[in-house]
């Protein structure tokens, strides 16, 4: 079986991507990050997901949070709530973490070289997304070109690294239905940017709003609880 590194946040999208990669026959190595995010619920969820889906290997990479300061996900800045759906994809919110996907993909690329893998999966989406520039197809295509130039495998072996983004053109409802078909248990996932101290999803941040609308559009009950 071919090996693949999959970025795993414990959220709805990355969990679906793990299941889809496994469905395609890949041996999955899940890579999560501890980067000083405002809560560790997503790392707990990523651990549950890895156990539930039976990934081949798992790693949590630590990054000094000062690298990512300035975002409401890494600093004491209020997370936007109850935003108009029309604005969610029209502007870059303060939940944007500086160059996060660039850093994450770089570390995934390094682990690929260690494992002898040539495939990276990421759960970015260009339809129902929160305005992040590093979720666009142009960015992923550029990173593939970088991977060929920046690695020993790419230089000496002419290895072709491929960035897979199977959710890139899917709506949130389509993602949910694809995940259910692939056997995902969404009750163990965590999507909220600003959960309560007890870990309950707030229900009002961009991520919660997109998730709730996705389940509603899919005609499926969301199995997690919300504070509002």
Spell out the key features of this protein.
8 helices, five-stranded parallel sheet, Rossmann fold, alpha/beta, 228 residues
Give a brief outline of the structure:
The chain is of the alpha/beta class.
Structure description:
By secondary structure, the protein is an alpha/beta fold. It has a single domain (3-218), classed as Rossmann fold, CATH 3.40.50. Helices cover 38% and strands 11% of the residues. It has 8 helices and 5 strands; from the N terminus they run E-H-E-H-E-H-H-E-H-H-E-H-H. It has helices spanning 12-23, 41-53, 85-88, 100-115, 137-150, 152-156, 172-181, 206-218, and strands spanning 3-7, 27-34, 57-62, 119-121, 162-164. Strands 3-2-1-4-5 form a 5-stranded parallel sheet, with helices on both faces. Helix 2 links the parallel strand 2 (27-34) and strand 3 (57-62). Helix 7 (172-181) crosses helix 8 (206-218). It is globular and about 55 Å long.
